[in-house]
């Protein structure tokens, strides 16, 4: 049962999104409560941002309320229960009273951020980006299991290296590895569900990939191995199964549907998986792993600079979702993804830029309050409140935050090139929250020190770049006031084109 605090948060949110009748769908990811809305105009954005526990709001294909890791998993079921109770005629608890309203300057800046989000949403509504979003919907539900198993794997590695609890180590290894050994099945299940097929049929076809018996099969002279093709093969197999199933639903008589459709779906997609998709997906997965290794081995600091510097723009464009299957493939191959610690440096640059904005505007109490409330989440890798509430609306600080991310990425990339290769055993967390998930060739101490060094570089360069280049004199004059001129009307700050 959710605690009273989380129930109160859910009760406060419900009327501010237009009440239960305005809610068409409810879901959550690692940090956000995602709500489908019937009428967007009924939402009170400013009041939502002012709620205790709400770190920010993001408008995309759904209305997303940033609550942070942990909290969102507790608020969501309480919110669902309130909506269900209200629709059944039960009285829903009233929203908390006395909620502070946003001050003029913070509200104006937030309004500009909302306008930028709306523009970004329109730009992101392209077939490619919508397809990437659907791919992300397949993998996002798997993140909690990846995190849990990743942390257990890290703990098990520490115990094994220290020679402690030898009878417990095999048990922890089994717990940590069980999910990863069957991740293809979950990907197949989610793929079929996302694309309108029967989820269990997608899982059944994907299960072929990890079945030990495939080792006895030669496909056109190619000897198959269990797991070959991994999550990419499972994704392709389940997509094919959905297509076959939909074709069968069209042509098979209703009286025979329950017998013929599942059989034809599994048989057709299964044969295509064994005699084509496993080999093809295996080659693609191997190429991804080889390219990632080559990129950091030869590109080093430059590769890290580019990846760390461009990740925030990728997020703005919605293209970062294409990285999720790549991360998962790398984890499946080597136990960790070398890309995530570098990309996490973008968040460090964002934190450094926000700290500089805080220091450069000592009289703008409303904006400093926003930054103070969002910084703890920023240090833990939840960057949306700082991005949409501070740097992106201001324009120039967004660019200088990218510079901080580039510097931190270059630092981590350099050490990868020098042989200290490491990565994250799961996807989702960032910032300080990534420390328990780090793994690599050089031991936990060295790995953690390099990652911490990268964060420090990101903070410092993001701060310095924003301090010296984040504001024009006119911007400082207009923004460094307490309730003065509307910061949204500050002189053009060369707002990034990707916003």
UniProtKB/TrEMBL annotation:
<keyword id="KW-0808">Transferase</keyword>
<dbReference type="InterPro" id="IPR018113">
    <property type="entry name" value="PTrfase_EIIB_Cys"/>
</dbReference>
<feature type="transmembrane region" description="Helical">
    <location>
        <begin position="336"/>
        <end position="358"/>
    </location>
</feature>
<keyword id="KW-1003">Cell membrane</keyword>
<feature type="transmembrane region" description="Helical">
    <location>
        <begin position="227"/>
        <end position="244"/>
    </location>
</feature>
<keyword id="KW-0812">Transmembrane</keyword>
<dbReference type="Pfam" id="PF00367">
    <property type="entry name" value="PTS_EIIB"/>
</dbReference>
<keyword id="KW-0762">Sugar transport</keyword>
<dbReference type="InterPro" id="IPR001996">
    <property type="entry name" value="PTS_IIB_1"/>
</dbReference>
<keyword id="KW-0598">Phosphotransferase system</keyword>
<feature type="transmembrane region" description="Helical">
    <location>
        <begin position="450"/>
        <end position="470"/>
    </location>
</feature>
<dbReference type="InterPro" id="IPR036878">
    <property type="entry name" value="Glu_permease_IIB"/>
</dbReference>
<dbReference type="InterPro" id="IPR003352">
    <property type="entry name" value="PTS_EIIC"/>
</dbReference>
<keyword id="KW-0813">Transport</keyword>
<feature type="transmembrane region" description="Helical">
    <location>
        <begin position="264"/>
        <end position="295"/>
    </location>
</feature>
<protein>
    <submittedName>
        <fullName>PTS transporter subunit EIIC</fullName>
    </submittedName>
</protein>
<feature type="transmembrane region" description="Helical">
    <location>
        <begin position="195"/>
        <end position="215"/>
    </location>
</feature>
<dbReference type="InterPro" id="IPR013013">
    <property type="entry name" value="PTS_EIIC_1"/>
</dbReference>
<feature type="transmembrane region" description="Helical">
    <location>
        <begin position="301"/>
        <end position="324"/>
    </location>
</feature>
<keyword id="KW-0418">Kinase</keyword>
<feature type="domain" description="PTS EIIB type-1">
    <location>
        <begin position="7"/>
        <end position="89"/>
    </location>
</feature>
<feature type="transmembrane region" description="Helical">
    <location>
        <begin position="138"/>
        <end position="162"/>
    </location>
</feature>
<dbReference type="InterPro" id="IPR050558">
    <property type="entry name" value="PTS_Sugar-Specific_Components"/>
</dbReference>
<feature type="active site" description="Phosphocysteine intermediate; for EIIB activity">
    <location>
        <position position="29"/>
    </location>
</feature>
<keyword id="KW-0472">Membrane</keyword>
<feature type="transmembrane region" description="Helical">
    <location>
        <begin position="370"/>
        <end position="390"/>
    </location>
</feature>
<dbReference type="Pfam" id="PF02378">
    <property type="entry name" value="PTS_EIIC"/>
</dbReference>
<feature type="transmembrane region" description="Helical">
    <location>
        <begin position="168"/>
        <end position="188"/>
    </location>
</feature>
<keyword id="KW-1133">Transmembrane helix</keyword>
<feature type="domain" description="PTS EIIC type-1">
    <location>
        <begin position="133"/>
        <end position="485"/>
    </location>
</feature>
């Amino acid at each position: 049962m959710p605690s009273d605090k989380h129930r109160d948060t859910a009760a406060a949110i419900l009327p501010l999104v237009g009440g239960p009748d305005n809610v068409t769908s409810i879901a959550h990811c690692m940090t956000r409560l995602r709500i489908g809305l019937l009428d967007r105009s009924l939402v009170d954005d400013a009041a939502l941002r002012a709620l205790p526990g709400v770190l920010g709001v993001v408008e995309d294909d759904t209305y997303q309320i940033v609550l942070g890791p942990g909290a969102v998993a507790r608020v969501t079921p309480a919110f669902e229960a309130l909506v269900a109770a209200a629709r059944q005629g039960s009285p829903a608890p009233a929203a908390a009273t006395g909620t502070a309203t946003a001050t003029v300057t913070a509200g104006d800046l937030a309004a500009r951020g909302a306008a930028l989000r709306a523009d970004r949403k329109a730009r992101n509504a392209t077939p490619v980006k919508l397809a990437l979003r659907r791919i992300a919907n397949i993998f996002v539900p798997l993140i909690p299991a990846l995190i849990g198993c990743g942390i257990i794997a890290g703990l098990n590695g520490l115990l094994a290296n220290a020679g402690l609890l030898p009878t417990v180590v095999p048990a922890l290894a089994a717990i940590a590895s069980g999910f990863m050994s069957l991740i293809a099945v979950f990907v197949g299940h989610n793929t079929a569900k996302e694309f309108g097929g029967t989820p269990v049929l997608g899982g059944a076809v994907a299960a072929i990939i990890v079945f030990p018996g495939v080792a006895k099969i030669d496909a056109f002279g190619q000897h198959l191995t269990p797991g070959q093709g991994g999550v990419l093969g499972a994704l392709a197999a389940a997509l094919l199964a959905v297509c076959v199933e939909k074709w069968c639903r069209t042509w098979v008589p209703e009286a025979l549907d329950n017998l013929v459709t599942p059989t034809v779906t599994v048989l057709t997609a299964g044969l295509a998986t064994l005699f084509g998709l496993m080999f093809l997906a295996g080659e693609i997965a191997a190429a991804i792993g080889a390219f990632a290794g080559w990129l950091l081995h030869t590109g080093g600091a430059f590769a890290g600079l580019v990846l760390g510097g461009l990740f925030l723009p990728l997020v703005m464009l919605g293209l970062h979702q294409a990285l999720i299957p790549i991360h998962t493939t790398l984890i499946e191959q080597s136990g960790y993804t070398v890309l995530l610690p570098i990309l996490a440096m973008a968040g460090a640059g964002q934190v450094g830029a926000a700290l500089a904005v805080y220091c450069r505007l000592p009289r703008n109490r409303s904006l400093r309050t926003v930054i103070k409330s969002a910084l703890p989440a920023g240090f833990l890798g939840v960057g949306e409140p700082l991005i949409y509430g501070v740097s992106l609306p201001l324009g120039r600080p967004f660019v200088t935050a990218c510079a901080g991310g580039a510097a931190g990425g270059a630092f981590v990339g350099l050490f990868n090139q020098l042989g200290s290769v490491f990565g994250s055993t799961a996807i989702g967390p960032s910032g300080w929250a990534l420390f328990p998930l780090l793994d690599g060739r050089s031991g936990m101490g060295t790995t953690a020190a390099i990652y911490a060094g990268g964060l420090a570089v990101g903070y410092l360069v993001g701060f310095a770049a924003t301090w010296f280049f984040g504001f024009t004199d006119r911007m400082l004059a207009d923004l460094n006031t307490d309730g003065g001129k509307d910061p949204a009307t500050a002189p053009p700050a060369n707002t990034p084109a990707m916003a």
